[in-house]
Amino acid sequence: MSQAVKTRTMTYMEAIREAIREEMRKDPTLFMIGEDVGPYGGEMGLSKGLWEEFGDDRMRDAPISESAIIGCALGAALTGCKAIAEIPFGDFLGVCMDQIYNQAAKNKYMFGGKARIPLVIRSPLGGYQSAAAQHSQCVEAWFVHTPGLKVVMPSNAADAKGLMKTAIHDGNPVMFFEHKKLYQVKGEVPTEDYRIPFGVASVKREGSDVTVIATSYTVQMALAAAERLSKELGIEAEVIDPRTLVPLDEETILRSVRKTGRAIVVHEAWLRAGIGAEIASVIAEKAFSDLKAPVRRIGAENVPIPFSPVLEQFVLPSEEKIFNAVSAFFGGRQA
Amino acid sequence: MQPDPKKRERVNHWIELYKKMLTIRKFEDRVRRLYADGEIPGFVHLYTGQEAIAVGACANLNDTDYITSTHRGHGHAIAKGANLRFMMAELFGKKTGYCKGKGGSMHIADLDLGILGANGIVAGSLPIAVGAAYGSSKIRKTDQVVVAFFGDGATNEGAFHEAMNMAAAWSLPVIFVCENNQFGVSTRISRVVKETDLAKRAVGYGMPGISIDGNDVLEVESAVHVAVNRARKGHGPMFLVANTFRHRGHFEGEVINYWGKNELEEWKKRDPLAIMEQRLRASGIGDEEFGQWDREIGEAIEDAVAFARSSEYPQPEDALNDLFTESGEPA
């Protein structure tokens, strides 16, 4: 943020909550539905205080029926409401996959473009807390692969608030992926009302030697690794957060790669057919002649996320892995 | 005709119901031939034999009410008032069709008429019906109701269970209309459920459930009338199981090896159009009127076919349009 913008410090979770609260105050047709989003305040605590302000109908505690939760939000969105559905763990999205990828994603297109579908599906992703195979996954690639959905993955509080506001007003089904490890991370958030457009990447750190494209929680790791690379090896990494995977801001990524000649894509999801494969392909197709080295990727090992911290750390990306992989471009430590 | 104005009014209403059913029947008879001749691509699932359910149910609805439909959805759309030209053009894959050729038979929708789309996923539309009802009753605070049409096969999907429970829990204005045509593709319902009286399931969800004759349009109309009145008053959903039989295969071109001996013939004796025709004849309607309606409706359908035939196909690159609403609302 530039110095001219007035800001307040708040957590990522508070920023998302504030975006929702502000928009619910403005628009009586906006409501949220999910498991325990009412008096309990959400399984992660994100909706705390909203039920007290907006009541049962607009902060709707749902049965443990993920298909009906998405369908209820979708049906209301198709008929003149704005809806936010919360699925308390991204892992549970498989339960309601039909409502998302066959219904929400396809309704507008298969009806010849007539529908307007202001639907936000919020769900936290991610591991690093020994929650094991069914409560730790990053599943964004499933939805990136499905035409008809926009996919948003904010990495800090200010982005989260501005992107949530855009999501609510987009008029299309938006998968809004939060990260459990980011919820309590504080950041500076502009005081005035603002939105962050989809399809505009954010350069989180400028650098001339290598481009690191990272998403969600791994942006924090990439930034920490970049500081160490600078101090210890004199390597200046440019860290880019696409912020939205659909639409993807290819231009910002390509501009950086043309400058640095080296690119590494980092995500917490599995390496195989992850978003890193897509971004690496875009770079290979459109900036091949600018590359000084093959594009590298860091992601989870292709196994379910294991429970024991020792195992989980081995499987998931880390600052250390990013540091090693980047330095390997320059003949430094091997990844 | 009878001099008694009340009786005349009733007969006129019956005529409307009959003509609507006849429109569906003749539309689909035409579609069947066009499909066999190769003019209509893809797959078609005909509603022939089940017309009384869509017509009887939709007779209780306003334009502002909603329906959700199935892969066997032509009858639902016509009963809710869909335009025959746009329907036929869609079946042809033309750009003048309801979905500009992007949906076809299984995805016809007219949101302005409350037709929230035919749906190719069994039970996939039921949660959406619940959502339309939630939006109208809890958020927008209108008295709109939703009729969700689905087959007996859908009752064994998880989405059916979730939708029934949710609608009952919050007393949402949904009328669940199960068209029990006895078969999920080839599998007789009695081979895959223990309790074949599907209406009994309603008890477990805390809503009324009844079984009705799905081939008698008047019985369907009066049962749905009760359900719609309850729903509009905020008394919650109702489950209606309309027993019927489709006269065609699961899809056109199917080799049918699963009907019992004479089963179709027995059901055809209770053809919904024949039942209504009998009533009308007993009320003094004669060959002249029946012949006239047949001609009029036939002409409307030929007009739709001519419209579809003369319409242009979409440009190939039109395939890339209509995925997203162009832009968000202004800040």
Q: How would you describe the overall organization of this protein?
A:
The complex is a heterodimer of chains A (335) and B (331). By secondary structure, chain A is of the alpha/beta class. Chain A has 11 helices and 14 strands. Chain A has helices spanning 12-26, 50-58, 66-78, 97-110, 140-144, 157-169, 217-233, 250-260, 275-287, 309-315, 319-329, and strands spanning 7-11, 30-34, 59-61, 82-86, 119-125, 150-152, 174-179, 186-190, 202-205, 210-214, 237-241, 244-246, 263-270, 296-300. In chain A, the strands form 3 sheets. In chain A, strands 3-2-4-5-7-6-12 form a 7-stranded mixed sheet, sandwiched between helices. A 5-stranded mixed sheet of chain A has the order 9-11-10-13-14, sandwiched between helices. In chain A, strands 1-8 form a two-stranded antiparallel sheet. Chain A is globular. Chain A starts with 6 loop residues before the first strand and ends in a 6-residue tail after the last helix. In chain B, α1 (5-36) packs across α11 (287-310) and α2 packs parallel to α8. The longest helix of chain B is centred in the N-terminal third of the chain and has 32 residues, at 5-36. Chain B is built from 11 helices and 7 strands. Chain B has helices at residues 5-36, 51-58, 74-79, 84-92, 126-139, 158-169, 201-205, 217-232, 263-268, 272-282, 287-310; strands at residues 66-68, 146-151, 174-180, 183-184, 187-188, 209-213, 238-243.
